[in-house]
Design a protein that fits this description.
It is built from 14 helices and 13 strands. By secondary structure, it is an alpha+beta fold. Strands 1, 2, 4, 12 and 13 form a 5-stranded antiparallel sheet that branches. A 4-stranded mixed sheet has the order 3-11-8-5. The protein has a 4-stranded mixed sheet with strand order 6-7-10-9. Strand 12 and strand 13 form a beta hairpin. Helix 3 packs across helix 5, helix 3 packs across helix 6 (100-115) and helix 4 (52-59) runs parallel beside helix 6 (100-115). The protein is globular and about 60 Å long.
């Protein structure tokens, strides 16, 4: 993967049934659609939480039918909403689908889904003319939590197209907190210093007690406070409104259409190999701070790395994880390399007690589908502002 790579054709890179069955999120999508084929899934037997044998038996009783677009979008929303990286997966969700027999029972449903062509467009690369940044209005949520932050400055703007350059800073989209603290955007230097300091602290703790189950951050996204954007569904709804990992009940948002610099360099994460490539070229060891929390969600102990976004930014201006890339890579243990990367660590402080293997791996966690993080200053202007709210009666996002 290089900055000069031409985007693949949809035919070459579109999702296959095997892609869906090989990944946690893909299996979850297929499993959810299979369950939606009947009003109440006819589990045979008396199991309240059916095991793999009952799941296989009942899946084989169903004849796959072609899902509608709305059913696929709703199922995808459920997949993203249920994504967790800090605890074991639920047995009644994609955790069950991890079992080989269940996976094979899902194959006819995956093949039916792919044959509809509904997922073909999910493999498209970033569309620079259809990028929207989101400013969330979390007033009600914050009042419930006792820390009302006020509205971002973007909510003071008039909605609709604009012929003028609108200067919106990061602090407008991510406003400071009140006197209890600040939530200002981090620069890359602050982010890297925090990761390195945290890793050192966790390694020292590990040296004192290798079996202390300390948890740490679970996400592997670039620093909080960078600009990010999303594309839209065919009906014009921004994808980032509907597909949000770790959704806290947000119900209002302003979306800002961005004009990007035409020479922006984009790293496309289409497959796990693309993520692994970033980790191999720009590794940042986070084994100590991720070892327990990622063990909870994957069952793996071993060396963990994430991309060093400070170095990725030297080659790319943005990193885009499309819908297909998310289904293929999110939540999966991504093999990076055998053994270790970089210099040999101190054997007395290496946090690898209880390893299940000696390989280096990574986890793409905390990425919303079809999200691009902008690592450098390539946003020239905001050309349109729109306000959206979640209509609970219609169960969808509606533009005001």
């Amino acid at each position: 993967m290089t900055a000069d790579d031409a985007p693949p054709t949809l035919h070459d890179d579109r999702l296959s049934a095997e892609d869906l069955l090989a990944s946690p999120r893909g299996r979850s999508l297929v499993f959810g659609l299979a369950l939606e084929q009947v009003e109440s899934f006819p589990w045979t037997g008396d199991e309240e939480a059916p095991g793999a044998e009952a799941v296989v038996r009942n899946l084989r009783c169903l004849c796959p039918i072609a899902p509608t677009w709305s059913a696929v979008k709703e199922a995808m929303s459920d997949v993203v909403d249920a994504a967790v990286y800090w605890q074991p997966p639920d047995d009644d969700d994609w955790g069950t689908a991890e079992i080989g027999e269940v996976r094979e029972a899902l194959r006819p449903f995956a093949e039916m889904l792919v044959s509809t062509g509904l997922l073909d467009a999910w493999s498209k690369p970033l569309d620079p003319d259809d990028q929207w940044a989101l400013g969330w209005d979390d007033k009600e949520l914050n009042e419930v939590n006792g820390r009302y932050t006020g509205l971002p400055a973007v909510f003071d703007l008039e909605t609709g197209p604009t012929d003028e350059r609108i200067e919106i800073t990061l602090t407008d989209l991510y406003p400071p907190l009140d006197e209890d603290g600040t939530r200002l955007p981090w620069g890359f230097d602050e982010w890297l210093a925090s990761v390195l300091t945290t890793e050192t602290r966790y390694r020292h703790n590990f040296a004192k007690d290798p079996y202390d189950e300390l948890t740490g951050e679970w996400w592997s996204t670039p620093p909080h406070g960078l600009w990010s954007s999303t594309g839209t569904w065919p009906d014009g709804t921004p994808i980032g409104l509907e597909l949000v990992e770790d959704d806290l009940g947000l119900e209002r948002a302003r979306t800002c259409r961005l004009r990007l610099r035409p020479d922006a360099r984009i790293a496309e994460i289409r497959r796990p190999e693309d993520w692994a490539d970033l980790c191999r070229r720009y590794p940042l060891d986070v084994t100590a701070q991720r070892r327990q929390v990622w063990f909870e969600t994957t069952g793996r102990r071993g060396r963990w790395v994430i991309p060093d976004w400070t170095r990725v930014a030297e080659e790319y201006d943005g990193v885009h994880v499309g819908l297909a890339g998310y289904l293929r890579a999110a939540g999966a243990v991504i093999d990076v390399a055998e053994g270790h990367l970089g210099e040999d660590p101190d054997p007395d402080t290496v946090p690898t007690a209880g390893n299940t293997d000696d390989r280096t791996a990574s986890l793409m966690a905390g990425w919303h589908p079809d999200t691009t993080f902008w690592l450098n200053d390539v946003i020239e202007a905001v050309t349109e502002v729109a306000e959206w709210h979640y209509d609970s009666d219609a169960d969808r996002w509606v533009q005001d």
